[in-house]
């Protein structure tokens, strides 16, 4: 019971701070995301003169759930049809930006005297944009339907997919310098086949399931079924050693092609807002002044 009290106290502190920030930054007409991050820093253990969360590990768990909901909602909004419309442009843009930033990070690492593998990791980190932050800002300013926003989000989605392959490549290079590359190619091939398989199953099976059961689904049962599909896909991807966020996005993209996509989007909106706020507050908690210095 004391553990439960600590958990509730931490959640109460986070939601209270998030509520204050939402009102304040909305009045100032500033991005609420920035306020969440600042608020997270202020209530983190790094700042001793304000109330502080007790169990940071619990907040990280909630933050991971927030990532799942945000990527799931992104998949619902930017399904495969929208991505296909900006596919060529998004791929070229993503490849250009990522290649340039990897080179920038690599040469910055060289100037700092780092090893080559560390330089490559720095370039990889700089090449990946924050899809969640940009999505939140476009929602705040109601830019989601604009043509340039669709291209931007399509590019970010492609970057996220490329990031998974990039992590596989960098991990293989870091673990074994004398590796022949067979394991790396096997992992990449497995991911491609895995994506193709679940896309095929999802595109043919899930829409048919929802269409045939639509008459029996009220809001509550549709929400529960949607969450089961989302978290089920996340578990499958996690079990196979792939990104949980990618699993959530794939689940959302599959459901985007169903007859209930618009209704699902409205049902998960409150959950996305709640866990999204917790996620961005937790990002602020991870900011360490000593590391920045």
Explain what you see.
This protein is mainly α. The chain contains 13 helices and no strands. Helix 3 packs antiparallel against helix 12. The longest helix has 32 residues. The two termini are 40 Å apart.
From the structure above, extract its key features:
single chain; 293 residues; mainly alpha; 13 helices; 80% helix; 0% strand
Characterize this entry briefly.
This protein is mostly helical and 293 residues long. 80% of the residues lie in helices and 0% in strands.
Q: What integer value in Å does the Rg equal?
A: 20 Å
Uncertain segments of ≥5 residues (pLDDT<50)?
Answer: none
Give the overall shape: globular
Strand content: under 5%
**How many alpha or pi helices?**
13
Alpha carbon gap, first and last residue: 40 Å
Residues in helix, % = over 70%
Topology:
Blueprint: H1 2-27, H2 32-42, H3 56-77, H4 80-85, H5 87-111, H6 116-126, H7 131-140, H8 147-175, H9 182-213, H10 219-239, H11 244-255, H12 261-285, H13 289-292
Helix pairs in contact: 1-2, 2-12, 3-11, 3-12, 5-6, 5-8, 6-8, 7-8, 8-9, 9-11, 10-11, 10-12
């Amino acid at each position: 019971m004391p553990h439960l009290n600590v958990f509730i106290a931490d959640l109460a502190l986070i939601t209270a701070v998030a509520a204050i920030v939402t009102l304040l930054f909305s009045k100032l007409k500033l991005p609420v995301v920035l306020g969440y991050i600042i608020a997270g820093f202020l209530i983190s253990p790094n700042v001793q003169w304000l109330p502080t969360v007790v169990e940071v590990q619990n907040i990280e768990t909630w933050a991971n759930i927030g990532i799942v909901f945000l990527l799931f909602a992104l998949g619902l909004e930017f399904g495969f049809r929208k991505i296909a419309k900006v596919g060529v442009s998004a791929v070229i843009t993503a490849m250009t930006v990522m290649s340039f930033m990897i080179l920038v990070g690599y040469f910055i690492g060289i100037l700092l005297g780092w090893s080559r593998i560390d330089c490559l990791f720095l370039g990889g980190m700089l090449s990946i944009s924050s899809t969640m932050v940009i999505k939140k800002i476009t929602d705040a300013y109601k830019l989601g339907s604009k043509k340039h926003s669709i291209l931007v989000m399509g590019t970010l989605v492609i970057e996220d997919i490329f990031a998974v392959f990039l992590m596989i490549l960098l991990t293989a290079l870091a673990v074994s310098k004398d590796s022949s590359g067979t394991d790396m190619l096997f992992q990449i091939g497995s991911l491609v086949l895995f994506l193709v398989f679940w896309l095929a199953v999802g595109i043919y099976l899930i829409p048919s399931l929802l269409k045939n059961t639509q008459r029996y689904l009220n809001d509550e049962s549709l929400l529960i079924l949607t969450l089961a599909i989302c978290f089920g896909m996340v578990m499958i991807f996690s079990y196979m050693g792939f990104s949980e966020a990618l699993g959530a996005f794939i689940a959302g993209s599959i459901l985007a092609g169903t007859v209930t996509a618009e209704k699902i989007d409205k049902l998960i909106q409150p959950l996305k807002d709640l866990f999204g706020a917790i996620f961005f507050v937790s990002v602020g908690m991870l900011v360490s002044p000593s590391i920045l210095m």
